[in-house]
Amino acid sequence: MAGSTGGTAPTGADIIDVTIAEFEAEVINASMERPVLIDFWADWCGPCKQLTPILEKVIAETRGAVRLAKINADQNPELCQMLQVQSLPTVFALYQGRPVDAFMGAQPESQIREFVTKVAKLAGPATLPLDAMVEQGNAALEGDDPEQAYELFASVLAENGDHAKALAGAARALLAMGETEAAKELLAELPPNLAVDSDIMAAKSAIEVAEQAADAGPLTELQAAVDANPDDHQARLDLAIAAFTAGQHELAMDTLLDSIGLDREWQEGAARQQLLKYFETLGPGHELTSKYRRKLSSVLFS
Fold first, then answer.
1. Domain range for residue 53?
2. What pLDDT, in 10s, does the model give residues 71-82?
3. What is the pTM of this model?
4. Active-site residue 80, yes or no?
5. Helices H, strands E: what count in the chain?
6. Known catalytic residue: 45?
């Protein structure tokens, strides 16, 4: 067997070292049943030492959907010539005996995950890797099926307990099922790299918003209070919380913008902080987040 560049240990037959002697059986023939990634590397190649551990990590998460065959380029020049390898690292994806995709050079983990997910889908939905399961969980959550969503997220976490998107999704699913305390516990005492993850921070904001909602008053009464005294910023804040809880997101954010326009310093900028919490809860890609960020900028710089 050839040497390894380090990183996680090979997982059974899913991550293997290959020479020209095993190439036909372990790569070409194996690709008839599932996609195979071929990683050409060398001991002297710095980018290879960055890339291979990421490949091993992501492939291990596919639960056997994709195989990784690592080939030492210096020890297997015939294979380099056969596949026309021009630089290192080079990664090929084979399925059913044919190259289907490739890339050269070290890549960030996010792009590796995207590449592997796309390749895994060639073998059918039953073999989707962890990131694809998270996507299914998010779809179930958006489709008002938090129980199914939680099961999917929990399955991902059983294999990778530090999967940030699965942690955030599981917390949101618990929140949707009314399990606020369980959601809080799930995200408590995370390591620093996870605590600052944008998805997890958004889930924490959603939990805080849900806790605020428990104390929200009747929407009609709060609207009447604001109409009776437009300078009552506490009434405006309470109205925004009640409106957001009721799903009237634009009313909530318009109410906060009006408060900011009247007195942006009230309670140390409480209306602005509440609005930012809603942005975080909805997520940066939500159309209302973009729309009201622009509106907030107009108010603050007018």
1. 15-125
2. 999 999 999 999
3. 0.56
4. no
5. 15, 5
6. yes
